[in-house]
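Question (not urgent): is this output format expected?
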Amino acid sequence: MNVAEVLTDAVDRVRGIVHAVITDLDDNGLRFRPDDSSNSIAWLLWHTARVQDDHIAAIAGDEQVWTAGGWCERCALPFDPSAIGYGQTAAEVGQVHVDGELLCAYYDAVHAATVAFLEGIDAPDLDRIVDRRWDPPVTLGVRLVSILSDNLQHVGQAAYLRGLVERSARP
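Got this back:
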């Protein structure tokens, strides 16, 4: 396996979890929060897609799928188009009401853009500096691992919440 294949396999696994979490989940399940200060499945998956979209677009030098593909308008969230969920309040988390099919379609569009970007990655590319705002500056490899780490944490949290939703529905 080359670097692009390894990274693509990793993002494909995240996509599989996203689909498993959303499949057959109604709006109440998507918006379920164990308490008023917890994240919902909808917010976790929207945030996962937004962070990946934001970061991949920045390193690829592309416009985000969120705005370029009209997803911002279709999802109609009450946030600035640049919002990715970072630092949002519990009240803002509660405002993420997105249909599961729409949320999944947005994630798939982000996934497709990510895979297209990864297809051109070779091992030497991982050392390229992509963000000089940090000390030390962030390389492409570090940024990609950061994206994957964030995604895996959030989709794992969403899968856990789905389990809570399913158990609460049992008689």
